[in-house]
Amino acid sequence: MQTPLEIAFNNMDPSDFVEARVREKAAHLEHLCEHITSCRVYINAAQKRHRKGNRYEVHIDVHLPGHELNVNNMPGDRHAHEDVYVAIRDAFKAMERQIMKWKEQAKGKVKVHEMPLQGRITELHTGEGFGQIATTDGRLVYFHKNSVVGKNFDDLNTKDTVELVIQYDESEKGPQASTVRQISSMKFKDTP
């Protein structure tokens, strides 16, 4: 960190043990992300005079290049943060999640949701209750009428476009679709 760690106590006396725990947790954050420029931790006791039953709030401000991350750890459970060390742990875990998210965004790694597999129905055997789908990745996949969702099997036609989920271990004859859902031809993409 470019700026030394700042720790402030509010409505409670400073404690070397609490400060040591905060320094340990802050060092872990710095180990996770070397880009942290400053970190401020505020520990607040809800009431100054209580020895038992007092709840602690921990606020953490972390500065990164171009960003400021904040955790305002207000206890949701009435008794969860009667222990200052639990409140510190929870606040730093929340900050750790924010830092990891920031690092992913800084690297340009954004979650991309995979498109479901699509295909066209090539064969239908309505009397027997099964058919085959030619998938966009070049496979021929069997499906049973019980795997059709959102529509009746009898309403399907050859050349209809569908999305499907394949199960590989259910049939000796090869992969079969466990779920088949008809889609409009507007949503259909000919390439995987």
Under CATH at level 1, the class of the largest domain stands as: Alpha Beta
Major sheet attributes: 5 strands, mixed, barrel
Q: Determine the CATH topology of the largest domain.
A: Double Stranded RNA Binding Domain
Strand order of the largest sheet: 5-6-7-10-9
Q: What is the helical fraction, as a range of percent?
A: 10-25%
Termini, distance in Å? 46 Å
Question: Can you give a write-up of this model?
Answer:
- The chain contains two helices and ten strands, in the order E-H-E-E-E-H-E-E-E-E-E-E.
- It is α/β, with parallel strands linked by helices.
- The strands form two sheets. A five-stranded mixed beta barrel has the order 5-6-7-10-9.
- Helix 1 packs parallel to helix 2.
- The two termini are 46 Å apart.
Strand and helix layout:
Layout: E1 6-10, H1 16-32, E2 38-45, E3 56-64, E4 67-73, H2 84-107, E5 117-125, E6 130-135, E7 140-144, E8 148-149, E9 161-167, E10 176-182
Parallel strand pairs: 1-2, 7-10, 8-10
Antiparallel strand pairs: 2-3, 3-4, 5-6, 5-9, 6-7, 9-10
Helix pairs in contact: 1-2
